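Morning!

This is the sequence you dropped in the shared folder:
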Amino acid sequence: MLFNSIDFAIFLPIVFLLYWVIGRKNIRAQNILIVAASYVFYGWWDWRFLFLILLSTVVDYTIGLALEKQNKNQHRKILLWTSLLVNLGLLGFFKYFNFFIDNFTSAFSFFGHSIGGYSLNIILPVGISFYTFQTLSYTIDVYNKKLKPTSDFISFSAFVSFFPQLVAGPIERATNLLPQFFKERNFNYEMAKDGLRQILWGLFKKIVIADNCAKYVNIIFENHEAYSGSTLVLGAVFFAFQIYCDFSGYSDIAIGTARLFGFNLMQNFAFPYFSRDMAEFWRRWHISLSTWFRDYVYIPLGGSKVSKLKVIRNVFIIFLVSGFWHGANWTFIFWGGLNALYFLPLLLLGRNRKNIKIADNDSYLPSFRTIFQIGITFSLTVFAWIFFRAENIGHAFSYIKRMLSMSLLSFPNIKPSYLLILLFAFILIEWVGRKQQYALENLWRDKPIYLRWGFYYLLIVCMYVYGIKEQEFIYFQF
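The structure's back. C-alpha cells below.
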C-alpha cells in the first residue's frame, strides 16, 4: 500500500478512528490493532510475504527470551548466530541469490571454463532490508545486555511490523521504539497536528519534487548518448533531488503518521544537502542506517581506535556493506567504495567532526565560504549518485564520459523551467527550516493563521497540478 495512494487515504483514517475510539486507554487493544493494521498494510502488496515477517518475529522473540535465561557465553553466541543466520539468510536468498550465481558463473567463464548456471525468478519482498535490520537490533541489544527481552509477543510483533516505517524505515532501534508500546498513549492534539504537517511536507517532496524529477531523470539516463554533457549534469542533479525527496519524503510521512498514533520515531534525514563536507553528509543522510552500521559493524570492528590500516579497513567495510545493502548490483558497491574514498581523508586528518553545528546557524543567508563548501560537497555527492542510478558499471562510465565531453559547455537540451522554479522554492524552504526536525515544523508559526493555511493549501494545489499518479518510492526496491 503506497502512502501516496487512494488506498492509504482510506486506510489511515479508519485505523486512526479505531485506534483512538475502540482502543482508547487500553494499551493491549491498541497494540493488537497496530499488528492487524500493519499486516493488512503489508499484505496489500503480497500476502505470502507476511509469513517472512512472522518468521522473523517468532525467531527473534524466542531467541530474546532464551538469551535472558542463558548465562554461558558459548550458548549465548550460538543463539545470537542463529538469529543472524536466519534473518540474514532470508535477506540473502531473496535479495542476493541471483547476484552470486551470475557472478560465480561469470568468474568461471573469465578463466575459460564454462559451467551451467541458473537463476530463480525470485520476487524481492518489499522492505525486507529494513525490518530485518530492525529485528536484528533487538537480538543484538539483548545479547549485549543493553535491553531486557520482552515476554509480550503482541508488543514485540507491533515493534517489528509497525506499518508507518515497515517498508522503508526509519530503521528503529528496539531501545527506542519497543518501550513505547508499553506506555499509555492518549490522544495529543498538538502532536497529531504536527504529524499531519510533517505528512503534508513529505507528500509534497514525493509527489511534486521527486516524481517530477524522475520524469527527466529516466529520459536522460536511458538515452544519455543522445544528450549533451550539460544535460547529463542536469540529469544527475535531478536524480540527487529525486532520491532525497523520495526517500526523505517517505520518512517524513512515516514519522508524521506515527505521531498520529502517539509514537516518536527517530529523524532519518537532517537536511543533508546543506552539508559542508562528506563526513557531515553521512551524519545527516539516512541516519537510521548509518548509525546502525556504526554501532553494529564499525564499532565492533574497532572503529577509529585501532591502527590506521585497520581504520581504513573498517571504513571500507561499512561503506561497501552499506552499498551492497542497497541492492545486488556492482554499481551500489562502487558507490559505497567511492564514498569511502570521500570520507577517509577527513577521518585520517581528524577533520571528520569539524562541521557539527548547523551551517550558518545564526544567519538566514549563507556565507560565501558556506556556499563554496556546500557546493563542493553536493558536487561530489551528485557524481557518486551517477553510479547509484546507472543500470551497470559500464552505463555509469559511459554516462560520465559523455558528461565530461566538450558538450558540457553547451546549454542543456532539456529546459524544464517549472521544475527549476519548484526546486528553487523547495531549497529555500528547506534552508529556512534547517534548524528543525523537518522544514515546516516551525515555519510561519508566528504568522497569522490565514498565511499559514494559505501556504498549506498552496502545497496541496501543487500536488494536484504537478502530481503523477501513485508512483512507487525508490527505496521499495531495497
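Headline: DSSP finds 17 helices and no strands in the chain.

More detail when I'm at my desk.
O.
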